[in-house]
């Protein structure tokens, strides 16, 4: 069956729709990638903030341990108190 002018017009419109669809798909993919990259950057920044906070807390705990270490050593060296007499 030979193609006539209507068939050619239909093919042209199909090709145009495909091209337009490809452009829309490409734009949507680009936007999704940009959003993903932004989200990944935000996640990384949040992780870094949590890691820094944990490091600060670790240093605070180490400092507190150093502060109370002499008291703990004194308790270790002193003999246990005798049980109360009834």
Could you characterize what this model shows?
The protein is mainly α and 86 residues long. It contains 1 helix and no strands. The protein has one helix at residues 5-77. It is rod-shaped and about 115 Å long.
Key traits:
86 residues, mainly alpha, 1 helix, rod-shaped
Q: In percent terms, what proportion of residues is strand?
A: under 5%
Report the biggest beta sheet as strand number plus sense, adding barrel if it closes.
none
How many strand units? 0
Mean pLDDT: 85
Outline:
This protein is mainly alpha-helical and 86 residues long.
Furnish the topology, listing elements before pairings.
Blueprint lengths: L4 H73 L9
């Amino acid at each position: 069956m030979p193609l006539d002018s209507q068939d050619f017009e239909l093919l042209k419109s199909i090709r145009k729709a495909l091209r337009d669809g490809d452009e829309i798909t490409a734009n949507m993919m680009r936007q999704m990638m940009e959003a993903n990259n932004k989200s990944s950057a935000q996640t990384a920044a949040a992780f870094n903030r949590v890691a820094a906070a944990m490091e600060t807390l670790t240093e605070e705990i180490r400092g507190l341990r150093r502060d109370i270490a002499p008291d703990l050593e004194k308790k270790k060296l002193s003999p246990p108190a005798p049980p109360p007499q009834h």
